[in-house]
Write a structure and sequence with these properties.
heterodimer, A: alpha/beta, Peroxisomal Thiolase, Chain A, domain 1, two-stranded antiparallel ribbon, 13 helices, B: 3-stranded antiparallel sheet, 1 helix, 8 strands, 36% strand, globular
Chain lengths: 396, 140
């Protein structure tokens, strides 16, 4: 099912600035636009650019605001007049899709310096039920929602079937939560930093079977931003440029009942296309940021992204392969499960971590010698998948 | 018709569209209709103006047997909003119909603890109001 992709944008653009709001997690009293501005200012400072040089803004829907055009509202608030603006809505896959789009429009000559930005207040800007409802209402109102199917339930059904087909266990899932919590404990600013055990995950309150509370992402406030520019310009920026080497996306269905096989996702196609464009294979990747709305999602993704065989994701993770010393250290910041989850832009923090790893800025979280990184984002019950391959100058 | 955007305690109900009116009329009569493509032979749930496989508009509506198996399921304990809070725990099921298509539904008259993969289930409907009956399944 993999479709050929010409290597059109390999190494032609780079991330030269990343930034987060001053605080991520529980941030009451700061509006989503203010959080986005904090992140944009931090990213801009890293890039060494002037605000007036940003000629494109790409964003997504901020769930705790009523703006229909967050990218446009942001530009007004930040005081710029961009000549390109877009609001991308492919749920959790938005993170990779927007970085890929930034690379594409620069390569097309449509923009020079792109700001990718979001701010949202899922934790304190809306009640828990409102937050849940905002995810719930992303499901179809005729054929899904009348049956009380939260988006969590669509992911849960895929994980449940994975258990049936491959013998994956709740203990396997729990290893994801425990591993990523250990990562978050080393990450400044992470939302969840108390140690947890396999038993803690197994015994936490059931949400929607087979998932319990500690199998699920947290809910957070925060802002995130990137500055993407051409490879030529990147050479003049103060930070080590992190190049976009490959991009791939895939959208397999809208309704969960039309997902071709519920244990295999569009991540197979999106990642293969991204690898092909980058000219790399999964075994070349040094560090990964993998969307982790639920623990089982990571189990399925290490398979679909090609790090292990289909069905072996559970034992692969239980054997320590997604942490230091393993095959593919992943989500070294803690992920959506323990660092933060701010909605459609939640996985921007995964991309930030991959960038920092490739820059060599991670201190005691550093994956030694990391040169090639993978960022995979997904959403809407695996309807949407987006992959970005990132690398240092040495990988060009 | 309720509007969940206004009343969070009202369960979301479908608003049939030009494609789906015959399907929802079928549910109102207690019947599950599938579309059979007379050109490529494809069978689809839910109703569209054209075949998802070959885009033919030469579609025939046939009543399904109502027999299916549970392909997957998840028992909801944390409700998606106030409207479903009193129903928990309830099972959402992904049913594979005998004819091939899958659909999302929920179980009636079934203890969630009794569910398992590949269990035989039978289609039924539950009348919500004069306009809408929802498709449901029970253990066969």
């Amino acid at each position: 099912m993999t479709k050929g992709v010409e290597p059109t944008i390999r190494g032609k653009t780079a991330i030269v600035g990343i930034g987060q709001s001053k605080k991520v997690g529980r941030v009451p009293g700061v509006s989503p636009l203010a959080l986005a501005v904090e992140a944009a200012n931090a990213a801009l400072a890293e890039s060494g650019m002037q605000k007036s040089e940003i000629d494109a803004v790409i964003s997504t829907q901020a769930m705790s605001t009523s703006f229909h055009r967050f990218s446009v509202a942001f530009s007004e608030y930040w005081g710029i007049v961009p000549t390109y603006s877009n609001n991308v809505q492919v749920s959790g896959a938005t993170g990779a899709a927007t970085l890929n789009e930034a690379a594409a429009i620069i390569n097309a000559g449509y923009a020079k310096n792109v700001l990718v930005v979001i701010g949202d207040s899922l934790l304190t800007g809306m009640t828990p039920d409102m937050a849940l409802r905002s995810m719930t209402e992303s499901r179809d109102q005729q054929y899904e929602m009348p049956f009380g199917i939260p988006v969590a339930n669509t992911f849960a059904m895929t994980a449940h079937r994975h258990m049936k087909e491959y013998g994956t266990t709740r203990e396997h899932f729990a290893h994801v939560a425990v591993t990523q919590r250990a990562h978050a404990m080393r990450t400044p600013g992470a939302q969840m930093t108390s140690e947890i055990t396999i038993e803690d995950v197994l015994n936490s309150k059931v949400v929607t079977t087979p998932y319990h509370k500690l199998d699920c992402a947290v809910i957070s406030d925060g802002g995130a931003a990137f500055i993407v520019t051409s490879a030529d310009r990147a050479k003049d920026c103060p930070k080590k440029p992190i190049y976009i080497l490959g991009a791939g996306e895939c959208f397999t269905h809208e309704h969960i009942f039309l997902m071709p096989e519920i244990t295999t996702t569009g991540g197979v196609t999106s990642s293969r296309n991204a690898y092909k464009m980058a000219g790399v294979t999964p075994s070349d990747i040094d560090v990964a940021g993998i969307y982790d709305c639920f623990t089982g999602t990571v189990v399925m993704m290490v398979e679909d992204l090609g790090f292990c065989k289909k069905g072996e994701g559970g034992p692969f993770i239980a054997d320590g392969n997604i942490t230091y010393g393993g095959a593919i250290p992943s989500n070294t910041h803690g992920g959506l499960l323990s660092y933060a989850h701010i909605g459609n832009g939640g996985s921007y923090f995964h991309a930030h971590e991959v960038v920092r790893q490739l820059r060599g800025e991670c201190g005691d979280r550093q994956v030694e010698g990391a040169e090639l990184g993978l960022y995979h984002a997904l959403g809407a019950g695996f309807a949407c998948a987006g992959t970005t391959v990132l690398g240092t100058e040495a990988t060009l | 018709m309720s509007n969940s955007a206004i009343d969070p305690f009202a369960k979301p109900l479908p608003s049939p569209d030009p494609d789906s009116l015959p399907l929802w009329e079928g549910f109102r009569q207690g019947k599950l209709f599938l579309q059979h493509c007379k050109d490529c032979g494809g069978i689809q749930y839910y109703h569209q103006a054209s075949c998802r496989n070959c885009q033919s508009e030469n579609l025939e509506e046939r009543e399904a047997s109502g027999r299916g198996k549970i392909h997957s399921f998840s028992v909801v304990h944390r409700a998606p909003g106030p409207a479903f809070k009193n129903d928990t725990p309830y099972a959402v099921v992904l049913v594979e119909l005998e004819e091939g298509p899958r659909m999302i539904s929920s179980m009636i008259d079934t203890n969630p603890d009794d569910l398992d993969f590949e269990l035989d289930v039978a289609f039924t409907t539950e009348k919500i109001n004069e306009e809408i009956s929802l498709p449901r399944f029970r253990l066969a």
